[in-house]
Amino acid sequence: MRPMFDEMNATGTSVREHYRTYERWLSQQPREVMHARREEAEMIFRRVGITFAVYGDKDSGEGTERLIPFDLIPRVIPAHEWREMEKGLKQRVTALNRFIHDVYHGQEIVKAGIVPADQILSNAQFRPEMIGVDVPGGVYSHISGIDIVRAANPDGSGNYYVLEDNLRVPSGVSYMLENRKMMMRLFPDLFASHRIAPVAHYPDLLLETLREVAPNGVNDPTVVVLTPGMYNSAYFEHAFLAQQMGVELVEGQDLFVKDNFVFMRTTRGPKRVDVIYRRLDDDFLDPLVFRPDTTLGCPGLLSVYRAGNVTLSNAVGTGVADDKSIYAYVPKMIEFYLGEKPILNNVPTYLCREADDYKYVLDHLDELVVKEVHGAGGYGMLVGPASTKAEIAAFREQLVANPSNYIAQPTLSLSTCPTFVESGVAPRHIDLRPFVLSGKTVQMVPGGLTRVALKEGSLVVNSSQGGGTKDTWVLED
């Protein structure tokens, strides 16, 4: 049996030191009080409209609005662990931004034989339109959501690993902020007995970052948030962040191009836009360049962007670096661009496009997690140990039909955290998504979004697959 690392409980009845004050408090809480607090949280979230659209399948155009379940028991990270994680995150995102710049300029990492050319040139997220285009400060991913897990070692200790790099339009930060507000409302006494690092200043840092990457010569930039509209699954977050930053929330139809600049329509007439925090994928940004059938973007936007007269956050073509098949090369990127050893490790990864890796994966499907290289949201993947023989056989056919579309990883024994479920307090598997902001400097708020797999034994934490969220406490020294 694989060892399990629990965030609160060490061995037997011992509680980890950073959780001791909280655990004493929790042990004194009657179950009916916790149930009442959970119902109160649900009522408030529903009233505020904090919902997420869940689709029947990834190709469906229809979804149902539901709350993301919120768990009352926080995930607690001691200060020294966070400091090391923060250093590793800054290092990783800096290298990834250097890689994206290199991809669209000299491709030195390809010439050095570190990343195969076809891994870039045949990548669905590679945008030839970005070749030779210079972006402010050389920053492509201004907002990065890096998924981190902790896995148990044979001796019962736990190591952090990066599971995934989300560099295109990472979502979830609004839930991080709302979870904190909810915990402070429900349990104000806990914040008096713990020194918890704040996260409420994230919108200020985000706006600061966006203003820093405005086109050259623009001293007082106009920033907007571009949303696909109210039917998008993350619309709540788009509206929330625009409101929190004090900027306009716009749709493609609110923007137009004139004289190689972007303007938004206002009641006082056209107003030039300098920075667009876009929450839609590349394909929908400009129907003159990408998908001609889309009405979500702004015709002519890319020509203005390529001329350097508007900044898009994140940059067009950023997805070439968060493809799951590129993920395996990130440790080598860190060494190549920064001359440093990676602080945060990758999960060992098998590239099914490689003959030896492909053979190994086929022979061990029942032991591995297999993912589509462009997949997201927990779709298009196989969790071998949790799958039936029939499910494995069906997935094998998909893998054989297109090996290069898949990567595989060992099934990590993800750490667990006590979670308040119907039967009481029980361990559930979790991950963490810190949000890294890159402008003139790289910065972040302490913590991130902790996602929790609410189904017993499940390793799938994605909201679209029934996962929930927790508040994340980074303790200050």
UniProtKB/TrEMBL annotation:
Listed SUPFAM superfamilies: Glutathione synthetase ATP-binding domain-like (SSF56059)
Positions of the Circularly permuted ATP-grasp type domain: 74-453
PANTHER family in alphabetical order: BLR5612 PROTEIN, SLL1039 PROTEIN
Protein name, as recorded: Putative circularly permuted ATP-grasp superfamily protein
Organism: Sphaerotilus montanus
